[in-house]
């Protein structure tokens, strides 16, 4: 017999589980949000997120070069992004930052967030009123978290894919992780939006790709990433930077850099 899906409203009417309860809980639900927050070996920070919610890339993923990355989700508190990064920049460890954010938020039971710092340390929080299946996994150099999922396997497969793709470009590892999570159950549930955010060395992002409303958001996000490899990524490398404050202004040199980038790509 198939178990009836519990609605958000029904769960909120029940007595909440204590905050000290299990980090993961099981049930079926029709929509989903899950994400991965990571630091690569070169110090870049990345967040990839997929959701049934419109324009998930606006409020959920946050990163700051040299500092860390945050993803805030469930009944999202957008303030957790900049406040979490400020906490890391002030010297707090990820676990301390998570405690600071959640303890000050009376809606903490409905929040989910995970965070990573410049040392690759991660911490995560899943509120007791987040909708099943919900939970998080913290690993060395990255974490995954989700709510309203098809099951724990979504996070497990997301984790395995990221770990198995070491050596590939950072963005591709993040995309592969989400794709594996979707294949573990995501494609049978709701989907609408996805986003990929990467910060490297500058105050501006290296990549900030968003799919706000699409029948196949991860496939579209992958298409946008592949499109960025044509001219966008080599062009961004020519922009003003900390190492080269004026950037490259000679258009002939820019075109040469684009050609060199294209020639270096695997055929």
Bin the strand percentage: 15-25%
Structurally, the number of domains stands at: 2
What is the name of the CATH topology of the largest domain?
A: Glutamine Phosphoribosylpyrophosphate, subunit 1, domain 1
Helix content: 25-40%
Radius of gyration: 19 Å
Order of helices and strands: HEEHEEHHEEEEHHEEHHH
Mean pLDDT rating: 88
List unreliable stretches of 5+ residues: 1-31
Walk across the major sheet and give the strand order.
Answer: 7-8-1-2-9-10
Q: Write the CATH homologous superfamily of the largest domain.
A: Aminohydrolase, N-terminal nucleophile (Ntn) domain
Number of separate helices: 9
Count of distinct strands: 10
User: In whole angstroms, how far apart are the ends?
Assistant: 51 Å
Q: Can you walk me through this structure?
A:
By secondary structure, the chain is α+β, with helices and mostly antiparallel strands. 33% of the residues lie in helices and 22% in strands. The strands form two sheets. The chain has a six-stranded antiparallel sheet with strand order 7-8-1-2-9-10. A four-stranded antiparallel sheet has the order 3-4-5-6. The relative contact order is 0.15.
């Amino acid at each position: 017999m198939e178990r009836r899906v519990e609605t958000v409203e029904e769960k909120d009417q029940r007595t909440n589980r204590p905050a000290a309860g299990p980090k993961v809980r099981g049930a079926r639900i029709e929509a989903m949000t899950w994400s991965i927050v990571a630091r690569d070996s070169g110090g870049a920070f990345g967040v990839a997120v997929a959701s049934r919610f419109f324009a998930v890339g606006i409020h959920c993923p946050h990163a700051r070069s040299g500092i860390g990355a945050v993803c805030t989700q469930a009944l999202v508190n957008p303030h957790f992004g900049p406040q979490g990064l400020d906490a890391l920049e002030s010297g707090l460890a990820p676990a301390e930052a998570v405690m600071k954010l959640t303890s000050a938020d009376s809606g903490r039971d409905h929040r989910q967030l995970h965070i990573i710092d410049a040392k690759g340390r991660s911490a995560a929080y899943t509120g007791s009123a987040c909708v099943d299946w919900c939970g998080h996994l913290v690993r060395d150099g990255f974490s995954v978290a989700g709510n309203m999922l098809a099951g724990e396997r979504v996070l497990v497969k997301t984790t395995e894919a990221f770990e198995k793709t070491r050596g590939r470009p950072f963005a591709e590892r993040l995309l592969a992780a989400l794709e594996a999570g979707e294949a573990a159950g995501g494609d049978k549930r709701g989907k609408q939006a996805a986003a990929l955010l990467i910060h490297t060395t500058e105050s501006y992002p290296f990549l900030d790709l968003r799919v706000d409303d699409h029948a196949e958001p991860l496939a579209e996000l992958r298409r946008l990433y592949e499109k960025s490899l044509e001219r966008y990524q080599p062009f961004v490398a020519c922009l003003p930077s900390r190492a080269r404050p004026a950037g490259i202004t000679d258009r002939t040199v820019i075109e040469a850099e684009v050609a060199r980038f294209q020639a270096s790509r695997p055929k």
